[in-house]
């Protein structure tokens, strides 16, 4: 396909896991997209919004809209940040002069797997990843964007990959953004439960569409001395593309 795509890079990716953004670009280019990266983009404002500081989140949202206003399609390797733009910007900016732009931008913003399967109509990106993999369904992607099978469709078409079902795959990993710092003990307990589910699969890797969930799980898996490692879906899809 030939389409110009604007890349929206979440803070977690920008600051901690930049390879996820690089892999996303590789995948998009491989299917024929022209990828633009608006360098003026900053945080979408979700941390402040989720914590109740809407007056602090609003300028971030308004800046985001101004930066991406002319984008044909926006693709983001995160269900969480995509949800912020699509679902919560219209609410956050209800009384803003940019409200109509927020609504318009929201329907043009897609999580990576969602864009590949629903918009580009692609499930086989030509990737190879000869490992056993299990999938964690992150909360915003699952519960807000209703993405259940899209990541799985993509994983099933990766050459050499053996997909292993996880018990309670839709159970929250416990990260929840600022939840993990405000309610540390609950967050850790939920993470331990998720780590048990991952370990029980015997898979070499656990993947998801959100780097924040993966970072949380990797910390707990490492502490438990588990052999399982985390990898973003984009990292698998970018693997040895033919």
Question: Layout of helices and strands, plus pairs?
Answer:
Elements: E1 3-7, H1 11-15, H2 18-30, E2 33-36, H3 46-51, H4 54-68, E3 74-76, H5 79-92, H6 99-106, E4 109-111, H7 112-119, E5 132-135, H8 139-144, H9 150-156, E6 162-164, H10 179-182, H11 184-201, E7 205-208, H12 211-223, E8 229-232, H13 233-237
Parallel strand pairs: 1-2, 1-3, 3-4, 5-6, 5-7, 7-8
List the main descriptive attributes of the protein structure presented here:
242 residues; alpha/beta; four-stranded parallel beta sheet; 50% helix; 12% strand; globular
State the total count of DSSP E strands: 8
- Helix-strand pattern: EHHEHHEHHEHEHHEHHEHEH
Mean pLDDT across every amino acid position: 93
What is the overall shape? globular
Total of DSSP H or I helical runs spanning 4+ residues: 13
> Which segments are poorly predicted (pLDDT under 50) over 5 or more consecutive residues?
none
The N- and C-terminal alpha carbons lie at a distance of 16 Å
The side-by-side strand order for the widest beta sheet comes to 2-1-3-4
Helix content: 40-55%
Q: What kind of sheet is the major sheet?
A: 4 strands, parallel
Percentage of residues in strands: 5-15%
Radius of gyration, CA atoms, in whole angstroms: 17 Å
Q: Specify the structural class.
A: alpha/beta
